[in-house]
Amino acid sequence: MKRVIAWQRLDTPGVEYADLTMSPLRIEGEIVLFDEGTPSAVSYLIDCDAAGVTSRAVVRLKHQGALTVRTLVRERDGAWRVDGIEAPELAGVCDVDVAVTPSTNTLPIRRLGLAIGQGVDVTAAWIQFPSLDVVPLRQSYRRLDQERYTYDAPDHDFHANLTVDPDGIVQTYGSLWAQLG
User: Fold this and answer.
1) pLDDT in tens, 166-175
2) What whole-number distance in Å separates Cα of residue 78 and Cα of residue 118?
3) What pairing do the DSSP bridges indicate for beta strands 95-98 and 119-127?
């Protein structure tokens, strides 16, 4: 099954378009937004294995006249390579979080399958914006009801309420993103 989703950025001009293939999960998207008045274009492709664990992510950023590409590959043993270079700080991480999109929160939500009231702490390979630096990011997800989750990144004092559809696809991401249509 394939889904097409569009989100609107709420705090600055921006929009995202994404194609999601559900099994195994693959997300391919494009984002155009203004960050402090500077336009940027981001495209990404994320592939997951049958268990929902990210196996590969490619992010392309056009920002201030330059193109930057970042490629992450997760080996079967849980080791990661970023642009072909071993990244031991990411060992065992299951998800990628691309900082400028709500779509990547869908990865752990679908993979974890939390029951209502259940919460879990995870670490993601966080692809920062606009640097595309990749660092571990501690995250916490708690399922409040059928459609609502809380999301926290405690090291950055960040909190957002998320709503999802029955497929676990993020519909709203706090006050930053809302699904269109």
Assistant:
1) 999 999 999 9
2) 25
3) parallel
pLDDT in tens, 74-97: 999 999 999 999 999 999 999 999
d(CA 56, CA 71): 7
Please give the Cα distance from 31 to 15 (Å, whole number): 6
Single-letter code of the amino acid located at 124:
A
For every residue of the chain, which 3-state class applies, written as one string? CEEEEEEEECCCCEEEEEEEEECCEEEEEEEEEEECCEEEEEEEEEEECCCCCEEEEEEEEEECCEEEEEEEEECCCCCEEECCEECHHHCCCCEEEECCCCHHHHHHHHHHCCCCCCEEEEEEEEECCCCCCEEEEEEEEEECCCCEEEEEEHHHCEEEEEEECCCCCEEEECCCEEEEC
pTM: 0.95
